Amino acid sequence: MRNVYGVLLTLIASFGIVGNVFCLVILPKTGGSKSAIVMLFTLGVYDTLFLASGIFLKYLPSITFLGHTPVVLSNLVSPVMYPVILLSHLGAAYTTVAISGERCIAITAPLKVTQWLTTRRVKVVTVLILVWSLAYNIPRILFFAPRAYWESSINSTWYRLEPTDFSKYREFL
Description:
The protein is mostly helical. It has one domain (1-143): Rhodopsin 7-helix transmembrane proteins (Rhopdopsin 7-helix transmembrane proteins), CATH 1.20.1070.10. 69% of the residues lie in helices and 9% in strands. It contains five helices and two strands. It has helices at 2-26, 34-59, 69-108, 113-116, 119-142; strands at residues 144-151, 156-163. α1 (2-26) runs antiparallel to α2 (34-59), α2 (34-59) runs parallel beside α5 (119-142) and α3 packs antiparallel against α5 (119-142). It is flat and about 70 Å long.
């Protein structure tokens, strides 16, 4: 059952990445509202990063018939992918809220939308979402660090994320 879970979710996430890449290529070429395009483009980037990091951190390592290779790969990329999955998850959530706000303004004040929702303002909002997502997740990123350990069953050194000494301080918690 674990193999089925890993294979199916890897396929679904891969199709999602392909679909997002198509949308990211096509979206800027549409003639829609610039503010909506910027927000949807940002959401597509967050979603693609979330799916890619999910493949490497969760789905591939659960496929046992591939041997130790997916787990080794997951352990190698986890120091990079763990912060990416945290950042993209929170960034996608706040970008979705921003899209809802942008659509609300576009519907309730259609005559003033071009004054209120300039491309520059929307870009500032997306950058603020990125900065907030990063600032919020810094403690969570500092909670874990890659540590080398010897795995005797395969006679190899592996890396895995383990709680840091910093995470044990009462002030941090």
